[in-house]
Amino acid sequence: MNVFSRLANVFVSPDACFASIRDKGTKWTDYVVPVLFLVAMVVVFMVATADLMEKVQADTIRKMTNIPEAQKEAAIQQANSPLAVTIKYVFSILSVAISALAGALVMWILGNFIGGGQQKYGVLLASAFYIQLISIPESIIKLVLMLQKEAMNIYIGLGSLFASPDPGSFGFQFAAQFEFFKLWRIVLWIIAFKVLYKFSAKKSALLVVVTMLIGMVLSALLAGIGMGRMG
To answer: Nearest Cα to 32, choosing from 56, 6, 58, 14?
Structure first.
């Protein structure tokens, strides 16, 4: 199975994708091709939302009480300078690789040392890149909703059920973690563990779900603190 077959199968037949990685091993294309797709997604997303991000950022700065009124316009210009925009693009592109590297490391430790299995880090990294491709349809849907609503904070899971959400609330931020695409990625990691490590479905689910829940709690805490300070 070549890289494009694996790319397609991670969406329609993840068992076959991960079994191919386990049995046939990985090539440089298993890392480069998914990264190219993900980088293209990031660039398209940032270009399409550039005007909206600039508007939201300007509104946010104008609402800040810790910046003197006389300095706010200068801060807005600085935030939208060519250097600042370039840094945003570079950081967003690097975050694709960093998140996969870190996620694969966590899963490798989880499977090898906590689960008692044996698998190479490179196999987990390739799997992480393929699983991360789920963010492409996620980004397309969120992009459409952002442009329709002219808002950057879009929730397509339990967070959308809150009529008047409090971004600084842990309860809201935790509920917002339960999005369809995030749950899809969790299911894919369970399948990956079952196939790559040959763990039982129960053991795979226990290892992945507990770890993901801890991550979601931490994310909700950090997001709540960050939004609380902005407010």
So the answer is: 6
